[in-house]
Amino acid sequence: MSRRRLERTDLRPAPDTDAAFGELVGLCCFPPAGCTEGVLAQVAPHSDALRTRAATGEGHMENHWAGRIAAAPDPRAELDRFPYLGNYHDLVRLELAALTAVGLPAPRRVVVLGSGPLPLTGLVLATGHEP
Question: For the whole model, what pTM was predicted?
Answer without folding.
Answer: 0.72
